[in-house]
Amino acid sequence: MNKNLFTLLVIACLFVSSLTYGQDDKRIKIEITLKEGNKTTKAVLRSATFSFTKSSIAAADGSDKTEVKNNYYFSLDFEKQDIALLAVLMKNKAGVDGQITMTDQFGKLPTRKFDFTKGRVDSLSDQLTADYTSAYISLLCDSLIIDGVKIE
Predict the structure, then answer these.
(1) Fewer beta carbons under 10 A from the terminal one: N or C of the chain?
(2) Class of the 23-150 domain?
């Protein structure tokens, strides 16, 4: 009897562990929204990385003056290439305004918002294999506001 009970318990544990392992519910949802006129395009991201740098550029006229230029970059990681989003980015060479939002599906963490202006493609990479796909887009932007704070 103990052997049967033990076997049943092992089978139940394996079944429950396979159910929990197989769930694809992600706690954090990251989404990009691009605004093109009155139309919006949305796509889900696997991850997004932001970087900000200041560059000192010498004046073109040969004087000793230097200009400080702010550089805003986003590296976007997609599980697969979103063609509608790619089409909006490729069509708008001067850049497109948008927002990246991070939302906790359980409601325990605050929502994060990254608003950017004139985002344009700096680099693009698409990886295809027999059992895995991913796409990466780097955006160069003119300005950025993180959760209401303008980055300068």
Answers:
(1) N
(2) mainly beta
